[in-house]
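Quick start: what a row looks like.
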Amino acid sequence: MSGVLIIAERALPDRGGLAVATSRIARLAHARGEKVHIVRPSSDVEPGARGRRTSDGVVDHPVGRLPSEDESAMALLAHARDVLEENALDLVHGIYATRAGYLATILAREAQVGSIVSLRGNDLDRGLLRARDLPFLEHAVRCADVVTGVSNALCRTAAAVFERPVDYVPNSVDATAFAPASPDPGLRRELGLAEGAVIGFSGELREKKGIRFLLPAFADVLRRRPASLLLVGGVRSEAKDALEAFRQIAPEAAARLHLVPYDRDPARLSRLFALCDVMVFPSLFEGQPNAVLEAMACARPVLATAVGGHLDLIAHGKTGALLPLSELSQLPRAIEEVLDLPSERRETFGKGARERVLGEHGSVSESTSWSALYCRARTLTQRRRRYH
């Protein structure tokens, strides 16, 4: 049996899209017959301690964070080395290049096994612009046997900067779990949503997700029509000042803002999404967000900025609507344009979105891509061994 060690920044039960993606990739590998182990930093175990738990056949090894980033990396690498050797694994997959990918390539070369580094989210953008991070990013991308990116834009940039092939592997979503649902009046009452349109957002709202554009846009829309803003996933601590300022400046709009805590239950999320007349994702920059895929799988009409992986998911006028970043000041008008569409037209958007997900973002498609790339990385390593 082949085996893969995944070194990642996050995995479930951590929050966020990176954690969801890491655990999904691990489960897909296990379903293909791979032995799968994840090593990741964690604040849920004592500093320097090594945890272990098994879920869905995947063995998770959280390593307690130490006071300094360098010490944490050393502890993570030491444990990853032990896991690789003890379980005779023949591939290392670093998910998020700047730290996890760097450690993955070091360990893979040391152990003479194959390596894959996956660029996720804003991994590349941040790494290229931070002097401390750039050497780690460059080493990871240049030394990996295979490099992947989660959006076409990310792949093009990495390929141009580092002059090497970068394979596009899109995210997938379980479209049987995330599925269209009928609006539930009881749930609407439970949430305290007033009469009028419901504008939805899913994910942890923060600066990069466009909080400073979404909140004022909602207040502007509310001046002309009754509406509520449903934020599913809460607000990151870094953005709480912006939310509090909004409450002070626009108290009437703030009274119609509804925060729903982070929820991993697809059935619950599908019911929440069904209440939304439009789901808005005004990100300033983006990878390929799971939240948008989940909304599309639920056949919701989506309005998103034309950045990053949004461009891979949304065909303007067919599977949703795109707003150029240069026109983000026009977000209120764009929201109202979607709300003013006949319900049949919005349903067409939603139907097209779900068909896009079913056709291009299913788990079978993603698993097939990873299987081929794992095979390529292993083959390259075997050739390197023969030549040396």
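That is the whole record. The chain has a mean pLDDT of 95. The two ends are 25 Å apart (CA to CA).
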